[in-house]
Backbone:
């Protein structure tokens, strides 16, 4: 009895999986600038953080002010 139930469950799951695999992402999701390129291996990907000038980080020049809670 268990094999019949699990067999039907497997068949239904495969049917749902193959029908949902036909659904594609919208053009808004696929045509973006920051999309991950899954076609290149990880060891060939460019490291964008090493190209950045370390002296021009996120530090903003300015003066500090003391905040008083009144």
Residues:
């Amino acid at each position: 009895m268990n094999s019949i139930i699990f067999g039907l469950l497997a068949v239904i799951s495969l049917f749902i999986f193959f029908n949902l695999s036909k659904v594609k992402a919208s053009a808004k999701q696929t045509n973006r600038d920051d999309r991950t390129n899954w076609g290149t291996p990880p060891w060939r990907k460019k490291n964008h953080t090493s190209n950045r000038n370390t002296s021009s980080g996120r530090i903003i020049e300015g003066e500090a002010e003391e905040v008083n809670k009144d």
Q: What stands out?
A: The chain has a mean pLDDT of 80. The chain is about 40% helix and 0% strand. Residues 2-20 form the longest helix (19 residues).
